[in-house]
Specification:
Two copies of one chain form a homodimer. With 487 residues, the first copy, chain A, is an alpha/beta fold. Chain A has two domains: 279 residues, Aspartate Aminotransferase, domain 2; 97 residues, Aspartate Aminotransferase, domain 1 (Alpha-Beta Complex), CATH 3.90.1150. Helices cover 40% and strands 13% of the residues of chain A. Chain A is built from 17 helices and 16 strands. In chain A, α7 packs parallel to α14. The N terminus of chain A is likely disordered. Chains A and B meet through α3, α5, α6, α7 and β3 of A and α3, α4, α5, α6 and α7 of B.
């Protein structure tokens, strides 16, 4: 009898919460097991009900959170799917991980779970400890300040505000607000509400509230009918793969983008709408999993600095280990830290890290009722401890190699179907010939028991949990081979 | 021995979680008890630590969530304060209420607490049930759709988007997007991202992200240095008190505001920036607790309709019973429901209710990773059941009478200090002669054991929990008398 099976049996004899560490894998089924097509009849019935109050067109299936475990999502029809999308890249430890269960079962945590404080006016000792012991240890080097928030979108919005305030403060040279600024601000007018801009990228995604949406350019459906800002939008590299065979051309593409970025800085300065910050993902995710080279990012940082703007790296989707490093921007060997780094999703809480000069000197400028949530930081702490104890970033690096090599093999075998395999860690993707093939492939994979995500026009992305191992990667690759044969 | 004291003793013999219902009051101390000034030395020490990573200037004291109970907040120095501000109006049942504790102690809830799903793609049966059994029963009449969100600000932002989409959809007369719209939207330009506006009010507050902030006009410090939209800003009534002695003048003020609102509709239509929606609080809260008459709101609704715009009532601070009705706008006897109603704070989750025509026909237009949180709806369900079982809205109505009459008496006694007492339910406020007196009064009250909130330039607001009773109101009124004597 295998060790893992023994461990599994031992776990069955204990309560789920007593199972520790890697045992979550021992609780998993041996592979996907499908009873119906997706969505099954029970999912469809629930979706009909949902239709009364919500638009159900984005619903894929109805989730059974009680039965889902580890890397496996179970739906209300009893279909067991290997989930490499993990609730839009937001579950770092898969489903029902004992480390997170323990947070809610520990009676010492009860009053923190029950009483959500307004942290801006009444922080708690536990929260202050969480800042120090949970958040600061993961801060990108040189970013001494951290502000928890509720979600990715409001993390970006508030980080944008911190950048606008930092910029105005520099120009004010320490002077206080003048009367004209105070009065005009109340009517949305300059100089109180100045005309300044944030530069973002074609294909970028930073959220869907008005400020974040003005920096989002992945798909028209997100933006149609919503008023926006006149902010500069630069091209982001579109590399040819395999990288090693297209170095010269890809370098040229870096040059093209950087030249346009430089132009945009000047154009917007000339039209009195100066760029105060540049907002960029380390890997454009929602837009189609597009990568920029370390050189591109190093030069982007240099350009941004030369133009007196701030560099914000949005790690909402890339942060917390999936790329094989804790922060994806660590892959770029930047000469210094970005100025602001935003996070959310796997962290369970939104927020941003920033250099101390990005902290407004006055109160109530970066503020809201909740300013984050201690309960979410309890969960994050459990996640970070598990990631460390179980070497999950190392695991992601190793599993990522298996996955990417497998995708490269599939690319060789099915060179008209599986295109441009790319990735860092398990944060991998590939393209398909067009959107209709891609969408059909996704449906086939799902019905074969693999839940994947799409992105951009023609890409499929992998966003598994950090407990996704070589064994799981091989199941996915085998199923992809089976499905590819049918195309 | 009094019954309440007996109950208190009985509770001491049980575990806290076994105490049910009104027994939360029996667990409370008999009144405030102060050991130090606020902030005490321990709070100050914690605040120094917080200073390393955050701006601590808005911190009032550091909260001991373990010791706080019912209407009483306890700080880390052991000061026991009667809290009539309740974490910026966000705790409906005070601290450590057994009904909320039970949510986290019930092992049936564990997998819902542990696995936060991406509800837009993978709703759960429990969530679908929560929509039906928790949210829909509290929907304002005629609003059939509900969309949970994360916080008040993003609830408003998404409601604004729903309104913009509704407006564009009407103008498009059911046609699909054209090529020019699709292309221009990706560059933040019209016609894809059209020039349309939301009307808001001087003194209004709707949040701090870019869209919400463009409708916020309560204080310059919220808005300074942040770019904004050219959106119309109308005056909101500024009544003279007592209302019954100033009817004619206050009616004139309604006329003044309504005339300007009508003008603004025309001005913005003329400059091709049509108003698609009007965004208004039923009681302007952050801006200074300013009220509008039922007639004002009825005529505002009529004007909005005549101008083909949507009426959004922001009940983030007023919703869930504090005004003596579940929704504050129920006081206005509007001929029909507002088109959209947003909520957050006491609800523990953000969100909005809307007429079904405000639900976009396409997926991914109102969307984000989480789309709310089932765990928060579990808490909301427990809150709503408690509010019903214990008749807490009726309690708030009765207690509000005692509180407002007491404030009116104080106004008579200290007519140069306690000005313009006003309110609905316990959602009460009064003005002071100027900001410096107001700020000083707040400090004195706090050091006397009453934690209150300020708003606007010169106001003090009451935002107690719904378990705030006549007994608590009298403690506050007595302390106010003591403190007023010193001024």
């Amino acid at each position: 009898m295998k060790a893992s099976r023994l461990l599994h049996l031992r776990c069955l004899l204990q309560t789920r919460s007593q199972c520790r560490g890697n045992s979550i894998l021992a609780q998993e089924p041996s592979g996907p097991k499908m009873k119906t097509e997706i969505p099954g009849p029970k999912s469809q019935q629930f979706m009909k009900e949902l239709e009364k109050t919500q638009n159900p067109l984005s619903t894929i299936f109805v989730l059974d959170v009680d039965k889902s475990i580890g890397n496996y999502a179970v739906d209300t029809d009893g279909n067991i799917m290997l989930d490499v999308y993990e609730q839009i890249a937001s579950l770092p430890l898969g489903y029902n991980h004992p480390a997170i269960q323990k947070v809610f079962q520990d009676s010492n945590n009860l009053s923190q779970l029950v009483n959500r404080p307004a942290l801006g006016v009444h922080p708690t000792p536990q929260f202050i400890k969480q800042i120090d012991q949970t958040l600061l240890p993961i801060a990108p080097k040189g970013l001494e300040c951290v502000q928890p928030m509720m979600c990715g979108s409001c993390s970006n919005e508030n980080a944008f505000k911190a950048i606008c305030i930092w910029y105005a403060n520099k120009n004010r040279s320490g002077k206080s607000f003048n009367e004209e600024e105070l009065t005009s601000s109340m009517y949305n007018k300059a100089p109180g509400c100045p005309t300044v801009s944030l530069m973002s990228f074609e294909g970028g995604f930073h959220g869907r509230t008005f400020g974040a949406l003005a920096c989002t350019h992945s798909k028209p459906i997100h933006k149609l009918d919503i008023p926006s800002f006149d902010w500069p939008i630069a091209p982001f590299p579109r590399y040819k793969y395999p990288l090693e065979e297209n170095q010269r051309e890809n370098q040229k593409d870096d040059e093209r983008c950087l030249a346009r970025i430089e132009e945009l800085f000047h154009e917007y300065k000339k039209k009195s709408n100066p760029v105060v910050g540049v907002v960029v993902e380390p890997i454009q995710s929602e837009g189609g999993d597009f990568h920029g080279s370390p050189t591109f990012f190093q030069r982007l940082q240099k350009l941004t600095k030369q133009n007196n703007a701030a560099l914000l790296i949005d790690e909402v989707q890339t942060g917390l280990g999936a790329t094989g490093k804790f922060w994806a921007h660590e892959h770029f060997n930047l000469p210094e830290s970005p100025d602001v780094v935003t996070f959310s999703k796997k962290f369970q809480t939104g927020g941003y890290f920033a250099k101390s000069e990005y902290q407004p000197k006055q109160p109530y400028r970066i503020f809201n009722t909740w300013m984050g949530e201690p309960a979410k930081l309890l969960v994050l702490d459990a996640i970070l401890k598990t990631v460390k104890q179980e070497n999950l970033i190392e695991n992601t690096r190793k599993t990522g190699d298996v996955l990417l090599n497998g995708l490269k093999d599939l690319n060789k075998k099915y060179s008209q179907l599986i295109l441009n395999p790319r990735g860092r860690g398990t944060f991998c993707a590939f393209d398909m010939p067009n959107a209709s093939v891609r969408d059909k492939f996704l449906v086939h994979m799902r019905n074969a028991g693999i839940q994947m995500g799409s992105c951009g026009d023609v890409a499929i992305r992998f966003r598994p949990a950090l407990i996704f191992t070589e064994k799981h990667a091989n199941i996915v690759l085998d199923k992809m081979t089976e499905v590819a044969k049918k195309f």
